[in-house]
Design a protein that fits this description.
- With 376 residues, the chain is α/β, with parallel strands linked by helices.
- 50% of the residues lie in helices and 12% in strands.
- The longest helix is centred in the middle third of the chain and has 27 residues, at 160-186.
- The two termini are 36 Å apart.
Amino acid sequence: MADIASLLNAFSEVAAHPSKELDKHLAAGKRVIGVGPYHVPEELVYAAGAVPFGVWGMVGTADNAKKYYPPFYCSICQTTLEMGLKGILDKLSGMMITGLCDTLRASSQNWKAAMGNKVPMIYVTNAQNRFLDAGRTYTVEAYTEVKRRVEECCDTIIDDADLMSAIKLYNQWRAAMREFVTLAGNHPAEVSNAARVAVINAGYYMDKAEHLEQVRQLNAALAELPASTEGYRKVVLSGIYEDIPAITSILDDNKIAVVADDLAKESRAFARQVPEEGDAIEALADGWCGLRADTELYDPKKEHLGALVQKAKDAGADAVVILLAKFCDPEEFEAPLATRAVREAGLKCITVEIDQSTESYEQARTQVETLAELIG
């Protein structure tokens, strides 16, 4: 049986030093394509023989990017461009950017203006109204164009069989990650919040086949242990991301067990299952069209609210912590509704504002400490 601590240390090393992983791919003769948030069809990159590499900004200030953004832009967009302007992303053969929110749509043009052909942009457009036949048709056509741009950046032609093989691999990986999230929540003594985030973040940098194998080993090792959350406060996290060291430290210091999550960079990213038959591009489009209950996506009936409450109940959570990314309009619009829905269901709920450029989280610490006392 694989040693849990050794596996977690390996994931933490990758998550802490993504540039080393990038150099490893390049040394192996692979091209690397940056992939930003959200719901990017990474399978197209993998099928091209390249490595998808997650780019969700960085913790720190965005000094150079301020020339391109007003101060009220979300930190993911600002610090991603900052990474580009500082040359941190120069080794990428392309950069996938979606248009799933107003900020990202504008940010894509800022990327073109600032970076030009230094790191070519691959724009990923998705039909927000994905419940209509027209939405599916639009997405098929959009993904066909994304495929063409990936082929240009990788100087190759994507074979249909390779794309379907990539789809199957990613389906297996997402299933393994969903299992990991559950197991980690049931074994907080073995998997701290910092370690949990490291496992997930490592998956944004490693080759998916390699990451899948190691996650399966970790899952098997955790499954051998009895589940126990004794002495921990059981919480569901909602929002965009949690991978800010100060936040994971606060959660760990207050014995918070993340028994489930509703985060865009975590469980929402693992929600997609793509059909494994038929035309591969159409299958990718069907995977997109099947997504539900996500604040970043068109959700006219607000299914996300009920899904969040149900997730918390199914996980036996004591509370929901909304990690509200500063200046994220979709999340800010829905946060009051989510808070009300959670509290009406009899659960505690707090909102903690986060930002990758924030230096102090003492107010957040006080909020979480108070929540921990209320849970008992």
